[in-house]
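hiii so um. not sure if this is the right channel but i have a protein structure encoded as tokens and i wanna go backwards to a sequence. like what aa goes where. can anyone help
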């Protein structure tokens, strides 16, 4: 088990080096950023504890990997695999737990402790429907794969709004609503298509990105709007949820552009940090959105036949 965590540490260090960052400075920067983001969250926003919980769920969900889990189970066995997942999830949850306790949200700290156990013992990817139809036809593949892989999580988020006791409704509505956007973002960040799919595109790279972002926003709206309407019917029209809806759509658009700005690699820690800051301090997105857009064009333009004709 120790060997596994040594490999994980080496893998993270290698990613820092690939970005031209010394791993020591990378870990230090990540720690300082988390502290800064936590401070901003708890001082600048209403209900920061629920934003915290949604961020934790997003982080854990983005690490769900069926192939990796199956490989670890084959190597270490089921019992040791669960222990690895518990330790790994616990390490991820530890800074979140310290944050909510430090700011006095003791009840929410209980949920922070429970979540890693849920993700350790319940392999959400096993509940995915790999062969069934989805509402998303053949394209985009991100929503097809993401929907099938995370269908249990999607159902759970909706059920938390539909059946929760009224005294907890507002709090759980915030967690579920933000959790939807966090989950949908993983549809794009964790599904990288082969370059051959871009090479057969007959559109220009600008048209491709425009449609990709527009498509992502429309399909995201198709998933979150029913929940928004349910919350509105139960709680009345609430300005906070309207703001969450707008910022969530901005978040998805930035994630899509960041995906192609870093293609064929996954979204880097630095890019993820910029996306997060752009949403939290949304006026910054007026600068970062076009930067990601032009970076994405520059990064994938050579793959498009249209641009060579």
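sure thing!! here u go:
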């Amino acid at each position: 088990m120790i060997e596994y965590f040594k490999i994980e540490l080496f893998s993270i260090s290698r990613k820092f080096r690939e970005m031209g960052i010394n791993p020591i400075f990378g870990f230090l920067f990540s720690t300082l950023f988390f502290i800064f983001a936590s401070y901003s969250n708890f001082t600048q926003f209403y209900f920061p504890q629920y934003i915290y919980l949604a961020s934790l769920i997003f982080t854990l969900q983005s690490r769900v990997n069926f192939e990796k889990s199956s490989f670890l189970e084959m190597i270490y066995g089921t019992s040791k695999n669960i222990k690895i997942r518990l330790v790994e999830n616990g390490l991820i949850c530890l800074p979140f737990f310290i944050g909510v306790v430090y700011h006095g949200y003791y009840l929410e700290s209980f949920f922070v402790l429970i979540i890693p156990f849920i993700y350790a013992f319940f392999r959400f990817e096993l509940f995915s429907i790999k062969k069934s139809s989805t509402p998303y036809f053949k394209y985009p593949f991100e929503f097809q794969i993401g929907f099938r892989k995370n269908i249990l999580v999607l159902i759970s988020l909706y059920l938390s709004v539909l059946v929760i006791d009224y005294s907890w409704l507002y709090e759980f509505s915030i967690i579920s609503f933000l959790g939807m956007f966090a989950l949908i973002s993983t549809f794009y960040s964790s599904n990288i298509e082969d370059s051959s799919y871009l090479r057969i595109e007959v559109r220009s790279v600008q048209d491709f990105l425009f449609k990709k972002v527009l498509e992502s926003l429309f399909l995201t709206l198709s998933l979150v709007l029913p929940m928004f309407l349910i919350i509105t019917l139960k709680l009345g029209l609430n300005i906070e949820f309207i703001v969450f809806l707008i910022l969530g759509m901005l978040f998805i658009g930035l994630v899509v552009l960041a995906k192609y700005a870093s293609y064929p690699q996954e979204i880097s820690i630095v890019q993820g940090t910029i996306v997060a800051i752009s949403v939290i301090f949304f006026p910054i997105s007026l600068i970062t959105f076009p930067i990601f857009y032009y970076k994405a064009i520059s990064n994938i333009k050579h793959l498009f036949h249209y641009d060579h004709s």
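oh and Residues 205-235 form the longest helix (31 residues).
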